[in-house]
Amino acid sequence: LGNAKNKSDYVGVIVNGVPDISVIVDKTELTMQNRNGMVGLKIINKGVSDIKFLNVILKDSGDFEVLSNSDTTYVGNLVSDDYQTAEYRINIQSKENAISIPVTLQYRDANNRYYEKTFNVELNLLDSKKVGANTKGGFPWVLLIIVILVVGGFVYYKRTHKTNKKGQFYQ
């Protein structure tokens, strides 16, 4: 009929990859002497894809018992190049100084695909007596510095006080 028509179509392309996730021990109160305490796990998303609905599950094993209210911690969303932490109170029953903690992660990617991975996180227990011995060595130095400052202040006060008395007699 002589009418010109233009038609435009838009196509969406989703760029996505398999989430690259890892788990490490972030902090702990546990030592060879104190086998009951908190352990913090750091969950790191190293991939280009965001993670949704992340659950961290720590089940009892022969090496330890979970004392927290729940063995599951809901973390939620974890964007690319970020991390979150999950803390648990555990009681170590093994006599070893290093244990393996099985951590299961359940999550979905940006396209709502379900993933479940289990990691064995190594927890090495330190000797609190050796760690404490290194930190206690600083106390005598602090005491020595305080004594030197007090003696120096006393000497300075006496010298300035003598000078002021001499100045009063000459006037």
List keywords for this structure.
171 residues; alpha+beta; single chain
Notes on the structure:
By secondary structure, the chain is an alpha+beta fold. It is 23% helix and 40% strand. The chain has 2 helices and 8 strands, in the order ββββββββαα. The strands form 2 sheets. The chain has a 4-stranded antiparallel beta sheet, with no helix packed on it. The protein has a 4-stranded antiparallel beta sheet with strand order 5-3-7-8, with no helix packed on it. Strand 7 and strand 8 form a beta hairpin. The longest helix is centred in the C-terminal third of the chain and has 31 residues. It starts with 20 loop residues before the first strand and ends with a helix.
| Cα shape | flat
Number of helices: 2
Radius of gyration equals 31 Å
Our estimate of the beta-strand percent is 35-45%
Low-confidence stretches: none
Return the structural class. Answer: alpha+beta
Spatial order of the strands forming the largest sheet: 1-2-6-4
Helix proportion of residues, in percent?
Answer: 10-25%
Report the average pLDDT across residues. Answer: 85
Sheet bearing the most strands, described? 4 strands, antiparallel
Helix/strand order: EEEEEEEEHH
Number of strands: 8
Q: What is the end-to-end distance?
A: 120 Å
